[in-house]
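Students often ask why inverse folding is considered easier than folding. One informal answer: many sequences map to the same fold, so there is more than one right answer. In these notes we will look at a single instance of the problem. The structure comes first.
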């Protein structure tokens, strides 16, 4: 009995230690360090203008302007975790080629941006980029987010519904709490998170164009979350990529897929 009692006490202590570590380290787990990448201004890029984007005088990402034409509007791109603004040029190009200015937003502590690498700071920075873009340029203004960035874009929509022309959420969570609960089922994760980051609730009052792209082979954020998200919104458009996973969705997109998305956004 003593051995059993000791074993149970040890297991319980280990459980509490692990739970405490998850609680204290959740920002590090959600926002790991980003690899170094080349400054986009050093790249040869079909004549389009690539400049540093600043908010309040501080570096906040890049702005890309289509060559030889007045932009039709602005897309803001929010990247995923383990990424930086430098990694999202191929995604930005889709909208630049369609005649739009693109801002690739950067979060504090990521890429070349200084600051604290936390979810709270990332949300605040995402909203600041939107506010600055809205103040600088006329509408329409669209949001595009991938994975973590889909969560950021959703939070930006909240409170700015009338100013957002359209939203594209790629491999999104419906609620971070639900995804985390699946990953760590032995812990009460929903109660441990600093914020549940409920994207469905964040866009619940938005009646503009909403497109959700899900990858059916996604094991990081299973496609059921994208499907549930779309099902919770009255007029969301859902595009499913049968052969793609969380990291390969971009390669699975065709020119026709992007054209369909632009049409759904009334941005073609």
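Output (designed amino acids):
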């Amino acid at each position: 009995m003593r051995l059993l009692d000791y074993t149970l006490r040890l297991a319980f202590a280990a459980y509490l230690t692990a739970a405490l570590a998850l609680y204290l380290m959740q920002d590090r787990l959600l926002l790991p360090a980003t690899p170094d990448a080349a400054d986009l201004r050093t790249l040869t890029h079909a004549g389009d203008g690539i400049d540093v984007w600043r908010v309040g005088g501080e570096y906040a990402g890049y702005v890309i302007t289509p060559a030889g034409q007045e932009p039709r509007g602005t897309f803001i791109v929010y990247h995923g975790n383990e990424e930086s603004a430098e990694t999202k040029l191929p995604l930005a190009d889709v909208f630049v080629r369609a005649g739009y200015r693109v801002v690739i937003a950067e979060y504090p502590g990521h890429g070349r941006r200084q600051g604290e690498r936390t979810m709270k700071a990332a949300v605040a920075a995402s909203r600041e980029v939107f506010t600055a873009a809205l103040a600088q340029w006329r509408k329409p203004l669209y949001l595009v987010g991938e994975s973590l960035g889909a969560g950021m874009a959703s939070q930006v929509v909240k409170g700015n519904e009338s100013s957002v022309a359209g939203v594209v959420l790629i491999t999104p969570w419906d609620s971070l709490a639900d995804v985390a609960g699946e990953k760590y089922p032995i812990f009460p994760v929903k109660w441990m998170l600093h914020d549940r980051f409920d994207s469905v609730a964040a866009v619940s009052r938005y009646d503009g164009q909403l497109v959700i792209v899900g990858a059916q082979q996604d094991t990081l954020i299973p496609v059921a979350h994208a499907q549930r998200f779309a099902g919770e919104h009255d007029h969301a458009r859902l595009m499913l990529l049968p052969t793609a996973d969380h990291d390969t969705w971009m390669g699975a997109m065709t020119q026709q897929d992007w054209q369909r998305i632009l049409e759904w956004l009334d941005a073609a």
